[in-house]
Model the fold of this input.
Amino acid sequence: MRRRVNFYECDPARIVHFSNFYRYMEEAEHAFWRAAGLTLTAVHHLGFPRVSATFDFHAPLHYDDAFEVTLRIAAMGRTSIRYACVITRGDTTIATGAMTMVCVEVGPPMRAVPVPDELRDRVEVAAPPA
Amino acid sequence: MRRRVNFYECDPARIVHFSNFYRYMEEAEHAFWRAAGLTLTAVHHLGFPRVSATFDFHAPLHYDDAFEVTLRIAAMGRTSIRYACVITRGDTTIATGAMTMVCVEVGPPMRAVPVPDELRDRVEVAAPPA
Amino acid sequence: MRRRVNFYECDPARIVHFSNFYRYMEEAEHAFWRAAGLTLTAVHHLGFPRVSATFDFHAPLHYDDAFEVTLRIAAMGRTSIRYACVITRGDTTIATGAMTMVCVEVGPPMRAVPVPDELRDRVEVAAPPA
Amino acid sequence: MRRRVNFYECDPARIVHFSNFYRYMEEAEHAFWRAAGLTLTAVHHLGFPRVSATFDFHAPLHYDDAFEVTLRIAAMGRTSIRYACVITRGDTTIATGAMTMVCVEVGPPMRAVPVPDELRDRVEVAAPPA
Done:
């Protein structure tokens, strides 16, 4: 996914507020599944809450910067999927992150269920970048 | 409602991003109904989408400023409620706004329905401030 | 400007939270000036705070909807610029809005100054749509 | 820090969007320093960008839930501070997180500098909860 930093995503330090990187990772996730032919919110009766999300920040992003979010599936468990994410601006690595989501029947209560074949069959676990 | 400006609500101009004022108005709205003994999201089968929202901005709010949001019901229609809102910091008027919401049966499609007595009986239309 | 609704922009009513429409209007504003060859934040020593912003909401936007934001300059004052904005999804009008910004020397205190020729010379006041 | 979940912080799954937990952690951080007599943005010429932030999510937070954010200093380095964070609702652990910030002279370019005594002298590294 490629896009530009919006003004409202920047904070008084004149850089992207770190909380927005998690939103960028999610945007890339939805674009990822859309590219695989699937709308995550349309998977019948299932939800995909996050069980963890992390980022290391290496360099700041500023207003109007064009940047790229690269997402791959790092691991596929029985009920969960782990993504790895790299955010870059040209040759500069801005941030590296990861996020794990779990498939649940939306409750209450939420109950973990196996990743449906509808998802599993469309994607592959990717090797980490060299 | 009283609270402080959060860092992440400010933009590179070092003032609260104007979009957040609409969120402050909504926070005050929910606090308003909570004070009247009601949780808006718990009104059975009804939703309250906005049909209009407006603000005039008179002075900026900065990080860590303590401010106050005053909300009153400006008009009560058959299917809609109009709020008037003033945001102040001490004696300084920061912004004045208004918002109209309509009661709907959540659809799809959404369909406007009369404001339920559950809401109507708890509040009064207030005179504008002198 | 065209783009899709992000998941994190939607609320529990499963529609775009109304506060985000003001952010869409700002995204379109920055895209507008970028198309005119200008980065708003790079205009030396000037800031452009909003003095008013308003929207009427006609129909909801949902997750993953593709939508379009059309912005035109409705009026150019000595120190201020007024935009008019229409948000559409295909043939459906979603929202119509307006926003006025003022040119200021960033303070404190902020002081209104004439719209610089750098902006004035690049754009035209547009007639309203038929 | 104690507060309630705002409606606009929840997503179509009717739970707090995970990105907002990082904002809650930051709110607690600023409240923490304010309680220690310090406004982070007023430390002369210094900024405090994040170098990492992480959360594990154990249970969802819903609209209107009252919750508590507990922050402690997990480590104090020469140029950085690491926080540990627990978010709870009553007896339920909602999320556990951590965040590392670094002291920089705001640039460009940013340059890491020692944590000033102004910060160091006001706080203590806390033992983890039993």
Q: What stands out?
A: The first helix of chain B runs from residue 19 to 35. Helices of chain B lie at 19-35, 117-120. Chain B has a mean pLDDT of 92.
